[in-house]
Amino acid sequence: MGIPRTVAAIAVLFCALASFAASADDDYPSRPITLTHGFGAGGNADAISRIVADGLSRRLGKPVIVEARPGAGGNIASDRAAKAPPDGYTLIMLTGGHAVSAGMYKALPFDPVEDFQMISTVVFFPFVVAVKSSHRFQTLADLIAEAKAKPDTLTYSSVGVGSTQHLVGELLSSMAGIRMIHVPYKGGGGPINDLLGGQIDILIDTLTITAPQLSAGTIRGLGVTSEKPWFSIPGVPPVAVAVPGYTVRSWLGVATSKSVPQPIVEKLNRELRAVLEMPDIKDKLQAMGNDVRGGSPDDMRNMISSEISRWRRVIDAAGIPRQ
Q1: Does residue 168 contact residue 222 with C-beta atoms inside 8 Å?
Q2: pLDDT at site 214
Q3: CB-CB neighbours of 165 under 10 Å
Q4: Packed helices 44-60 and 262-276: angle between N→C axes, nearest 10 degrees
Q5: How many CA atoms lie within 13 A of 160 on its CB side?
């Protein structure tokens, strides 16, 4: 008698779980979703978040509200997202700086992998090292020569201590054998405005920020951090021309807090990947110089874990002090 009752109980449990899964998928979302990021308004993460939020709003039938929470290289927003209720209503646009922070900081208030449920990558891209168009530097070799002759005089921007832009500059300094002064911002238009205003010497930023200025002729690209010339700015040589072996690639991807029900995770992944194939969304992202690539949650998790290991090796090899 016990076995049939056990079998019946298990069957009831499976039915209940199946019913819950179907309900979670069907009912979600029933209210607006917040897509947060950790950088200033108008910057790369903000611009891409708004494009993705527009597509998700259309696909899900509910508003997706973009919320900027800049500071600490994106870690303020990451900490909030990691501790959000596991209901799928708080998403975060993680950047390559998420993996960099795991390598740069001795301790974080969250685990950069285990405290998040990854949804999908969105784009991959390099960075640009640039100066004002009227600057005396014509090439990256010019910059390196002066930095060697006058250590700790040239200034370069980033979007925060521990951001990927910061590591791009630190890695360049290490590999080229130079010393420059790091000037951190909270993202947004601050770095480009100060470059054009003469407050800083060198801009290190994304294509979202640099490509329009390159096209307008207001800045000069000295190097792009991709291994080969990047498709959207073919006239800018790779940094590796002047610093052999130098290459940095970054990314953006959507995640949420851990323990979000699997049906919601699957729905978000399915809908986000559909958004990235929407012609108007894909065209906008590619026009900004991005390589648009979605993937599975496991793909994103494995990529971030690999990036964390890579940046830890880079930081150790370059002798960059951890924060």
Answers
A1: no
A2: 96
A3: 32
A4: 110
A5: 25
CB 131 within 8 Å of CB 86: no
What would the pLDDT profile of 292-310 be if each residue is shown by its tens digit? 999 999 999 999 999 999 8
Which residue has tokens 């959207």? Answer: 232
The DSSP annotation for 159-218 comes to SSTTSHHHHHHHHHHHHHT---EEEE--BTTHHHHHHHHTS-SBEEEEHHHHHHHHHHTS
**Per the structure block, which two tokens stand in for 251?**
């990314």
Question: Looking at the chain, which runs of residues are DSSP E strands?
Answer: 33-37, 64-68, 90-95, 116-125, 127-132, 155-158, 181-184, 203-206, 219-224, 250-257, 291-292
The span from the CA of 38 to the CA of 208, in Å, is 16
- pTM score: 0.83
* pLDDT tens digits, 157-171: 998 877 889 889 999
Give the model's pLDDT for residue 5.
56
Nearest Cα to Cα of residue 54 among 237, 269, 272, 232: 272
Cis peptide before 29 (omega within 30 of 0): yes
> Cα–Cα distances in Å, from 93 out to 122, 160, 165, 261, 316?
9, 16, 17, 19, 27
- What is the side-by-side order of every strand in the sheet holding 127-132? 203-206, 127-132, 219-224
User: What are the backbone dihedrals phi and psi of residue 129, each rounded to the nearest 5 degrees, phi first?
Assistant: -100, 120
b/e burial code for range 30-39 (CB count within 10 A of at least 16 → b): eeebbbbbbb
DSSP three-state, residue 140: helix
pLDDT (average), residues 85-98: 96
**Phi, psi at residue 185, to the nearest 5°?**
-120, 180
Res. 26 pLDDT band, cuts 50 70 90:
confident
What is the end-to-end Cα distance of the chain in Å, rounded? 64
Tokens of 121: 């990558």
pLDDT band at 22 (very low <50, low <70, confident <90, very high): very low
Distance of CA 138 to the CA centre of its chain: 29
CB neighbour list of residue 314: distance below 8 Å, 6 or more residues apart: 103, 167, 171, 320
